[in-house]
Amino acid sequence: MTARHGETSGRVLLNEEGWNAACAAAAQEIAARAYDMTLDQMLARNRCRAWIAEGRQVAMYLTHVIGQVPLSETGPHFGRDRTTVAHACARIEDKRDEDYFDNGLMRLEALMMKRVGELKMQRLLTLEAARAAGNRDHEITIEKPLIIRTAKGRFYTFQPVGEQPMEAQPLETRQPADEG
């Protein structure tokens, strides 16, 4: 099962397989955009051009390192086995010695961290909604934007997941109104 970006429901994220698929799909999308390739090119079983292989290796690296998906569970989302994923991660770590590559990879890691954070938020919201509904098997759909206040007094709004990724948009920083 491979989830594609925009198809991830909160219910899917409740199990480990769904979480791993969502992380792999996010990494695939990020790497595909960065390397200007299609997902079909990235997931092709045949040997390919070096830049496509590097893009796939970056996606595997992001899935394993940032998404914290085990090697053995990362491989199937790319049509590869765990040893191939281990090789990909080692190659990417070796290439980090090159400043231009490392700077680009840091930007991709930041994008992946943001997406994983969005997925975690979606997972937590789904768990809370299921708990409140008293039924873990109930399909939960969040249709309205959510506004969340952090402990530091910042407000963020999360748009429902649909065709667009869930984006955290900082709202103006404001203090809660004094009641009195």
Put the structure in a nutshell.
This protein is 52% helix and 6% strand. The protein has 6 helices and 3 strands; from the N terminus they run ααααααβββ.
Q: Strand arrangement, largest sheet?
A: 1-2-3
Mean pLDDT: 76
**Helix-strand pattern:** HHHHHHEEE
- How much β-strand is present in the residues? 5-15%
Classify the secondary structure makeup into a structural class: mainly alpha
- For the terminal residues, how far apart are their CA atoms? 54 Å
Low-confidence stretches: 1-10, 163-177
Number of strands: 3
> What percent of the residues sit in helical stretches (DSSP H or I)?
40-55%
Radius of gyration: 18 Å
* Distinct helical segment count: 6
Characterize the overall form. Answer: globular
Profile the largest sheet: 3 strands, antiparallel
Describe what this molecule looks like in 3D:
The termini are far apart. This protein is mostly helical and 180 residues long. Strand 1 (146-149) and strand 2 form a beta hairpin. The protein has a 3-stranded antiparallel beta sheet with strand order 1-2-3, with no helix packed on it. The model is unreliable at 1-10 and 163-177 (pLDDT under 50). The protein is built from 6 helices and 3 strands; from the N terminus they run ααααααβββ.
What is the topology?
Layout: H1 16-34, H2 39-43, H3 50-66, H4 71-74, H5 82-95, H6 99-133, E1 146-149, E2 155-158, E3 168-170
Antiparallel strand pairs: 1-2, 2-3
Helix pairs in contact: 1-3, 1-6, 3-5, 3-6
